[in-house]
Amino acid sequence: MLVELAAVKGQLQMLMLMIQTNHDSTHQRIDDLRRATEGRIEGLDERLATIERNERSTALKAASGGALSGAMVGGAIELFKFVAKLP
What we know:
Order of helices and strands: H
Shape: rod-shaped
């Protein structure tokens, strides 16, 4: 009977060791996935910041170009009015 209990105890110890090993490998896979995901997110954050800077720059250029064009057209119209009033 003691021999059988010792065998069961040995089997339980082996099961516990297998469970712990499985837990450790699962934890390692989760850590690897977390590191990979964090790296990708950091890369996306940098790319998004670059895109936002470029977008603002493009918007400012377009707005200033539109304002300059409007001013030029307005000036041309006033010049035509002035020239039309000359005798």
